[in-house]
Amino acid sequence: MMILESLRRQPAHGYALVQHIQQRSQNLLQVEEGSLYPALQRLLKAKLVKAEWTVSPATNRRVRMYEITKGGIRHLEREINRFDRMLEGIQMVLGPARRAQNS
Amino acid sequence: MSWWDQIFRRGRFDDELDEELRGHIEEKTEQLMRLDGLSRVEARRAALRAFGNPVLVETRSREVWRWPRLESLVADLRLALRRLIKSPGFSVTVLLTLAIGIGTNTAVFSVVSSVLLKPLPYPDSERLVSLWLNAPGAAGLANFQKGLPLSASMYFAFSENNRTFQALGIWSPGKANVTGLTRPEEVNTILVSDGVLEALDVPPSAGRLLTAVDQIPNGPKSVMLSYGYWQRQFGGDISIVGRSITVDSQTRTIAGVMPRGFRVEDQDFDLLVPFAFERNKQPLAGFGFHGIGRLRSGVTISQANAELARAIPIWMDSFSNGPGTDPHWYLKWRITPDLHSLKQEVVGNVGNVLWIVMGTIGLVLLIACVNVANLLMVRADARQLELSIRAALGAGRGRIAGELLLESVLLGLIGGVCGVAVASAGLRLLISIGPANLPRLNEISLDPGSLVFNFLVSLAAGLLFGSMSAWKYSRRQATLSLGSARTMSSSRERHRSRNVLVVVQVAMALVLLVCAVLMIRTFQHLRGVDPGFSHPSDLQTLRIAIPDSSVSDARMALRMENDVADKLSTIPGVTSVGFAQLVPMEGIGHGWNLIYVEGKTYAGDPPIRFYNYISPGYLRTLGTHLLAGRDFTWSETYELQPKIIVSENLAREEWGSASAAIGKRMREAPSEPWSQVIGVVQDVRYDGADQGAPAIVYWPAMVKNPWLGTFTPRATTFTIRSSRAGTQAFLNEVERSVWSVNGDLPVASMRTMQEIYAKSMARTSFTLAMLGIAASMALALGVIGIYGVISYAVSQRTREIGIRMALGAQKHELRWMFVRSALTLTGIGVVFGMGAAAAVARMMRALLFGVSSLDPISFATVPLILAAAAAVASYLPAARAAAINPVDALKSE
Question: Does some domain include residue B103?
Answer without folding.
Answer: no
